[in-house]
């Protein structure tokens, strides 16, 4: 592990392997540990970089508010600080939003783009969505991060064979400072680059779990708006796809990177 100064804060990161740069961006309330099952396999052919977004893991946790554009600027600063001209970029959930923003704001830095269980728009539209946002804020403020983690974990990893992943997720999420978590959550809610995605020119792969809580129809719709983009669906899988089904996920990502290396 190492630290680098970016945009006035210190970002913690790891680098493994050698070859073309491959950057992994984790999800909300998590950290670079999201990608433990990807590091060794992909480090055989790539310089694999994982890091903690501001407010997450071992990176600095400055006062908010945060924004997706700010997360993307931090990511760009990390790549430039490491002397990387362009990277294959993979993001899950919140990390997918950051990856979209990075590809639009700094297209020269993104060689290929892989979006996992995410999309280019987090606008809250329906009463059900508004209630879900309110409820998450309420739980974090009144019950704490451990309570939130305990509620989410069984939905992400319901099967007995994923007990270890479930327990790691709960422990990892419980570490978060509640206020900092809400800053990051707030950055995502209402964010959108949906009107800009047609400008993405690099190869794009969307990887979706068939049982993810973000609709498959939404992913099909945005993929159709990006020239050359394609969608791969992994069955019997949920939101934390790279952790729940690492072999299937790694195979799909590996084929894409092999074609786009």
From TrEMBL:
<dbReference type="InterPro" id="IPR029058">
    <property type="entry name" value="AB_hydrolase_fold"/>
</dbReference>
<dbReference type="InterPro" id="IPR000073">
    <property type="entry name" value="AB_hydrolase_1"/>
</dbReference>
<feature type="domain" description="AB hydrolase-1">
    <location>
        <begin position="21"/>
        <end position="138"/>
    </location>
</feature>
<keyword id="KW-0378">Hydrolase</keyword>
<dbReference type="Pfam" id="PF00561">
    <property type="entry name" value="Abhydrolase_1"/>
</dbReference>
<dbReference type="GO" id="GO:0016787">
    <property type="term" value="F:hydrolase activity"/>
</dbReference>
<protein>
    <submittedName>
        <fullName>Alpha/beta fold hydrolase</fullName>
    </submittedName>
</protein>
<dbReference type="GO" id="GO:0016020">
    <property type="term" value="C:membrane"/>
</dbReference>
<dbReference type="InterPro" id="IPR050266">
    <property type="entry name" value="AB_hydrolase_sf"/>
</dbReference>
